[in-house]
Specification:
Blueprint lengths: L9 E2 L4 E2 L20 E5 L8 E7 L5 E6 L7 E5 L5 E6 L5 E6 L5 E5 L7 E6 L4 E6 L1 E2 L2 E2 L6 E3 L5 E4 L16 E4 L5 E5 L5 E6 L5 E7 L19 E7 L11 E5 L6 E6 L5 E5 L6 E5 L5 E6 L14 E6 L7 E6 L2 E6 L11
Antiparallel strand pairs: 1-7, 2-3, 3-28, 4-5, 5-6, 6-7, 8-9, 9-10, 10-11, 12-13, 14-15, 15-16, 16-17, 18-19, 19-20, 20-21, 22-23, 23-24, 24-25, 26-27, 27-28
Length: about 350
Amino acid sequence: MRTLLFALTLSLSPLLALADDLPRPTGDTIIPVNAKLEKVFTRSAPISGGLTEGPTVAPDGSIYFSDIPVGTDKGLIMRHDPRTGKTEIFIDDSRKSNGLKFGSDGHLYACEGADHGGRSVVRWNVKTKERTVLADKFMGKRFNSPNDLCLDREGRIYFSDPKYLGDETRELEFRAVYRVDPDGKVTEVTHDIEKPNGLALSPDQRTLYVADHNNGTDRIDPNDKTPPKRGAMKIYAYPLGADGLVSGAKKTLHDFGEQAGCDGMTVDSKGNIYLTARGLKRPGVMVLDPSGREIAFIPTGLPNQSAESAKGLPSNVTFGIAEERQTLFITVDTSLYRIGLNIPGYNPWAK
């Protein structure tokens, strides 16, 4: 493993506009007519493969996100300041963090994946950079590869546990969605899903949205020229009861069919759902209303691409707060983008 130098502070200014040949966004109620997708960061660290992921907004308005390599290279957690345009390294060994979320306590919560990662749900004190493992097992068995998470108003952590990378042996039968309570108790929320990925809660906390992204394999092999057979690529809405657990049958909001589906997601203050659609036919951020009707689309890559040279594939999204509350931040390939919208995002702890 090569030596990595992480002392460098990274910045990108002025903002770099995305290629002008992308299709224009659709959905005037959501996206201003003259809105443009802008690049604010691109990876320069000497790490290989992978992608940027898991953007989340901190109480000070900065955007934290994961930069995930493949293999033995250490992952990073980055911090972008929208006010200055500067991006710097927060942690130089993220243990392959993926999804990130800030809680009302000001701590940063992270899902650490497999492929030489922590396979845990952890909490970071952003002031001291102290890391605390909150959960790494269910019923005595190690998690597969915690992927994405969301927190409810009670501080309970919902997270998905699929597996896409790494040589680690799976110990759990299911790829499930779990919840970690403040007292450390881990509860299985549902395994009625093929391969859970992105998660989001509705503003009224009564619905849990889950992306089913079954790519057909637990270990992506870049040298395998025969792609695995895909399974479900769908978005489900699970009704939640007063106890925060599933209280009825799931509803399919969207089916991506033969195309790759959604990775991460978020919601706005109206309850609309922002999905990162990774299909080569139409990569971008798809916006659904709570009934599942598409009401807007933000292209992040050219349509009808080939798998060998695909670019512009989004992985996750978050809204800013305060003066950036109507700004959507999107991780795409190994970069971070932003675009101004007409509607503010929803954040359970932000004023």
